[in-house]
Amino acid sequence: MGNLIGSAKRMFYRVEVEVTKEDIPKICSQLRVTKDETQRRVVRQIRSLAIADASSHTPLVKANVLPAICQWLRSRNTTVQIEVLRTLQVLAESPLATRRMVEPDLMKALTAQVTKQKNKDVACEGFRLVHAIARCGNVSDHLVDGQFHEHLRKQLKNKDVRIQKEAFGALERLCMDSGAADALVNTDADNVLKNCFDVAKKTENTEVEKGCLLLIARLCTVELTAIKISEGTRFAFVVKTAKDIIPFRKVCGALALANLGMHKDLRVRLVKVRAFQLFVDMGKIQSLRADQAEFPRVAALGIANLSANFMLREVAHQVGALDVVVEMLGGDSSEVRCSACRAVTELSLHEENGRRLAMGGVFPSLLEMAKSGDPTQESAAIQAISNLCLSPENQKQLMQEGGKQALQYLGNSRNGGVQKLAKKLDIRVKMMKLKAAARIAGKIAAAKSDMIGDDDGDNHEPRESFEED
Q1: Per mean pLDDT, which range of 281-290, 383-392, 448-457 is the poorest?
Q2: Which of 68, 92, 143, 178 could be 148's S-S partner, Cβ–Cβ 3.0 to 4.6 Å?
Q3: What are the two backbone dihedrals, phi and then psi, of residue 452, each rounded to the nearest 5 degrees?
Q4: pLDDT digits (tens, 9 = 90+) for 235-248
């Protein structure tokens, strides 16, 4: 009977009380408690509120909830530590909360918790928190200052698969920032690459393999590691992975090849291993499967990077890249469309490609993006349109397809760069019209001059013959 009562009490205390933003002052009044059970209950309330109502993140941050719960990371009770870290992961979805977390006072507490943690469950939650913070832009430098990248690097060969998986996941996300990727390889690039390729070839855990392959792809953006990867068997391994039939491997390998294309000395070598054909084939796959959703975006990135070489722009036309890019521009994903815009920007610097793209129907999609109201799409679209309109034929076609209204709209954009490009393009189109008018006027003047010359000739001929007589 006593056991039943005890079980009923435990079930009773597990029931979470629903909280709203109106309860934030009440929650704040309990932030000085010292009992483990009360701390767990308060942290769970904060997390449930943050999950249920995203608008509560800002008032929670302004109420100084973060410094208080970060102090509870010092608790000897691992359950409290885990609850705090999970709550911070939810709050990290808010840019305001993330910026607060990377401030020196809280960063010091987080660094001590993550880098010196011996409990594996707590360590995994700490790595997930680093992953969540790294998703927010412009904070990676703070994580690098805290030496998180070094600690994560040391865990890449941890025998515990959970630790290894979370370490790879956090590190690859952190290395999306070029500064963090540089910091990771500056100390010992050879050792980092050796660990990554060894794990990628030997691990039997799919999540670990995926995180490892993504980290290799991120490191391909750094020139030092890109050169090292392009040497020996590593390059062959990346190419083989990109041609794998398993989608996650194919995406990771293709992303690595696309990032290698950022470096001009490697582009010709990539073309020799048929990288263009790989990206074209991936770009043609418009699948609803989650594991193939990234195919078009990676394909557009790869085509754009390889097309930065003038000699390879004609190759892009020969392998059918232009048609694929036009098709991707008409897709539903804004990320894919922006990546395709970048490909158009590079490909259209080849004048014949620019004309082919215009004739292929690229302008309607670009104009739709230009008038979407999304700053990212506006910027990508105006750059592509600007390069396409280097030729008079494309300028004329742009005006025929409604470009005038789009340029007027972009001329009033809040983005200064977009506004500047739109005004330059508008001036270029007007100059084209003036030159056309000047040419017509010149032809008319020349025709009139010829007519006058003929009339004068008719009048002078009899005089000349009369004088001879």
Answers
A1: 448-457
A2: 143
A3: -65, -40
A4: 999 999 999 999 99
Quickly count: other Cβ atoms within 10 Å of residue 23's Cβ: 15
Sign (positive/negative) of CA torsion 146, 147, 148, 149?
A: positive
- If one compares 221 and 332, the residue with the highest pLDDT of the two is 221
Structure tokens at 441: 């006027």
Number of H helices, E strands in the chain: 29, 0
At a CB cut-off of 8 Å and minimum separation 6, what does 70 contact?
Answer: 84, 88, 106, 109, 110
Residue reference for tokens 């020349």? 446
The Cβ-side half-sphere exposure at 249, using a 13 Å CA radius, reads: 15
3-class secondary structure per residue, 266-292: HHHHHHHCCHHHHHHHHHCCCCCCHHH
Residues 6+ apart with CB under 8 A from 98: 92, 133, 136, 139
Let me know: does 121 contact 136? Beta carbons within 8 Å. Answer: no
Q: How far is CA 402 from CA 342, 356, 422, in A?
A: 22, 19, 14
- The Cα–Cα gap between 111 and 106 comes to 9
Burial of 137 (0-12, 13-18, 19+ CB in 10 A): exposed
Helix axes 321-329, 275-283, angle to 10 degrees: 30
Task: Give the model confidence (pLDDT) of 326-355 as tens digits.
Answer: 999 888 888 888 989 999 999 998 889 989
As given in the structure block, the two tokens for residue 420 are 């500047």
3-state secondary structure (DSSP) of residue 146: coil
Cα 400 to chain centroid distance, Å, stands at: 33
With H, G, I as helix, E, B as strand and everything else as coil, classify residue 66: helix
Q: How many CA atoms lie within 13 A of 96 on its CB side?
A: 13
Cα–Cα distance measured from residue 1 to residue 263, given in angstroms and rounded to the nearest whole number:
73
332, with CB counted inside 10 A (0-12, 13-18, 19+), is exposed
Q: Determine the Cα–Cα distance for residues 259 and 172; give it in Å rounded to an integer.
A: 14
Torsion of CA 253, 173, 50, 24, to 10 degrees: 180
pLDDT digits (tens, 9 = 90+) for 158-206: 888 999 999 999 999 999 988 889 988 887 888 999 999 999 999 999 9
CA-based nearest residue to 322, from 292, 287, 346: 346
